[in-house]
Amino acid sequence: MSEPRFRIGPEIVHETVDGEVIAIDLTSGSYYSLAGSGPAVWELLVLGVSEAEIGAALADRFEAEQAEIGPAVSALLDQLRENGLIVSETEVAVERPALASSDEKAPFETPRLERYNDMKDYFLLDPIHEVDTAGWPRPAA
Amino acid sequence: MGTQPRAVRAATGGDLADEYFSQLLDRFEQAATAVGGAGRLDLEMAGLRLRVRHAGEGLRAGLLAPFEHLACPPQGDPDLTISLFDTASSGIEPPPPPWDPIVAAPGTNPVARLRSERACVLAAAGSRGLTAALPAEGIAVFHLPDATAIPASERAAPIREALQLLMAERGRLMTHAGAVGRDGRGVLFVGRGGSGKSTLALSCALAGMEIVADDYVLLEPDSLTAHAMQSTAKLTEDSATRLGVPAALIDTAGFEPTLEGPAKALVRIPSLVPGRMKRRITIAAVVAPALPPLSSHLFASTAKKDEVNGEEGALRPMSAAEGLRAVAPSTVVQSGFGGEGSLATLADLVRRVPSYALELVSDPEANAAAVDRLVAELD
What's A4-111's CATH class? Predict the structure, then answer.
């Protein structure tokens, strides 16, 4: 029985600056800040990982027990999924990423995700309707 | 929405967007012939030579006047060419669009977009501007129905889509930001529409600083250069009053309130601050203006002075991440596509120069003084 794996959604662009992830959803204009130990989770999500793999990787990297890390990761994945920042896929022939391990452990900080909606007006004003090769408008989701 | 295809179908083996571009370019040539030949304006923009050809003088007056400050003598083949025509002047219609009409709600400007590897077609339902471009080849065509009735959004930022597409291909990112400075070095003003960028940029120019733009620049990331585009600024009536902009310089024609906020009028920057508009500036910092919380009415009042904030706008250093949050979203969402590259470019910018928040006060001169002091203090 395989676990679902998670990866960053296809319409999400993101950059990590100063230990904070800034992610923008190109379909809605919402943008997000992910801080605390969240960027370490994000780094793994870029590779495509399961929840268990994230938990194991963080336990290796941070001074915290699974009992603390597990629920925090689970809550973050829920938030990321609800906001459409990640997608899940059943594990089928997906190559497992090599997860880096670390000798020195850092303090674990609960991941913090903040959402900003102030760009929504731009989507109301100038929504883009993609036109496919059949020649019909396909409104942005 | 209808159900019958009304497209100009792609030629066999061709591509719909490529084909539409070819047909629109052909219609431009017909329009140029119909008006007795195309006029042209050669510009130096962001270090590139841009030739704008126009079928009729109406579009030149209505769309190209804001670029006259970038005019240069014709010299050899240009790097980029944009061809403009309108139906009212020439009698030439554009090819029927390969999509059903999209209805624009009042105050909105939905855009139909058709792309191929080589071509991009954008049709704005509100402004009725039609752009088709071959970005890699540096050519674009733009059509409007009537040069005598150019929508305000198009007059404020003329041929924006064509410029964005062609410039992005050459490493110049159209960035939603103003830019001011001294002696060729300065700051970018960033933030969404309504955050105070335009008023602050014009305040600085009126205080004697150089200005490149109030709202959009072309960012050349390697050299940290902000290049000028159009010379128009957009101001609310309140901002124009507080800045003391003479009524004779304000173009209010056709500018209506949108969902974005109160109506803004156009002001030609060179008319307001002769000699202070520059082609480019090197970016030494990013500044995000912020209206004081819960005080938009207070801020709007010309009578009320800064009883709380003191004489000068308060500058606060921001982290690079905060800077990116201020500069990136509006540029990235307006870029429509290529978002990943745009975000990476802007992330690189905030890693290389410091970012500041500027809490605005109601006195424009005080805000300008804070910016001027910052520019002087930056290395």
Answer: alpha beta
Tokens of A8: 């960053």
Q: Which residues form the domain of B263?
A: 173-377
Measure Cα distances from B137 to B120, B134, B166 in Å.
12, 5, 8
The beta-carbon neighbor of A22 closest among B112, B324, B340 is: B324
CA distance A13 to chain B (A): 5
The more confident residue out of B337 and B97 is B97
Residue B6 lies inside a defined structural domain of this protein:
no
Alpha helices (H) in chain A, listed in sequence order: 38-47, 51-61, 66-82, 120-125
Measure A141 CA to nearest chain B CA, in Å.
14
Domain assignment of residue B11, yes or no: no
Instruction: Quote the CA–CA distance of B356 and B20 in Å, as a whole number.
Output: 45
What are the boundaries of each domain within chain A?
4-111
Minimum Cα–Cα distance from A127: chain B residue: B110
Q: In what order do the strands lie in the sheet with B39-45?
A: A137-139, A128-131, B111-115, B120-124, B130-134, B139-144, B80-86, B48-55, B39-45
Within this chain, do residues B89 and B21 fall inside the same structural domain, yes or no?
A: yes
**Confidence grade of residue B202 (pLDDT, cut at 50, 70, 90):** very high
Predicted TM-score (pTM) of this structure: 0.88
pLDDT in tens, B318-332: 999 999 999 998 888
Interface test with A, best of B9, B118, B264, B325 (most A CBs within 10 A): B325
Distances (CA, A) of B80 to A31, B47, B242: 34, 11, 40
- The total number of structural domains in chain B stands at 2
CA B74 to chain A, closest CA, distance in angstroms equals: 36
Of B98, B108, B324, the CB nearest to A131: B98
CA distance B308 to B295: 11
Q: Are residues B50 and B127 in the same domain?
A: yes
Question: A13, A42, A116: best mutation site toward chain B, by most B Cβ within 10 Å?
Answer: A13
Residue A16 distance to chain B (closest CA, Å) = 8
Considering only the beta carbons, identify the residue of B193, B259, B320 that sits closest to A17. Answer: B320
Secondary structure string (H, E, C) spanning A105-132: CEECCCCEEEEECCCHHHHHHCCEEEEC
Residues of A in contact with B318 (CB under 8 A): none
Using a CB-CB distance cutoff of 8 angstroms, which residues of chain A are in contact with residue B124?
Answer: 126
The model's pLDDT over A44-80, given as tens digits with 9 standing for 90+, comes to: 999 999 999 999 999 999 999 989 999 999 999 999 9
**For residue B352, what is the domain's CATH number?**
3.40.50
DSSP A69: H
Pick B100 or B66 by higher pLDDT: B66
Which two three-digit tokens encode residue B194?
């309504």
| Statement to judge: residues B124 and B185 lie in one domain | no
My answer on whether B114 and B232 are in the same domain is no
Contact B107 A31 (CB under 8 A): no
- Characterize B84-110 residue by residue with b for buried, 16 or more Cβ atoms within 10 angstroms of its Cβ, and e for exposed: bbbbebbebebbebbbbebebeeebbb
* Contact (Cβ atoms closer than 8 angstroms) between residue B186 and residue B284: yes
